[in-house]
Amino acid sequence: MGEWKVKPWEQIGSKPVGNFRIFSIRSDFKISPRTGREHDFYVIESVPWVNVLALTPRNQLVMIEQYRHGSNTVELEIPGGLIDAEDASPLEAGLRELREETGFEGSAAEIAGRSSRIPRS
Length: 121
Prior knowledge:
Elements: E1 10-19, E2 23-31, E3 38-46, E4 49-51, E5 64-68, E6 73-77, E7 80-82, H1 90-102
Antiparallel strand pairs: 1-2, 2-3, 4-7, 5-6
């Protein structure tokens, strides 16, 4: 039995589908390397995002309640939001979001993790 290797899909086109304020959607047309058939993929693009894990002096996790239209419910979640162009760094954006959403002022903040698309500060 031969070795099976995952191969990249050749992109043959792309078109914008919509701009929805905090994200946009585009449609990419690609060819399957296995079958040679064309497929359409939807890609969501967004500016970088930050989430905050904030602890009180008593080691309690700071969370917020927010209404989410997608689930039509009030959700309990950690603070977070988009990194604005005016933010000096993702760390500063996290501190700003924490302040805006909870009123808490963070100190001794540090980056716990990042995705490959988030710029380094």
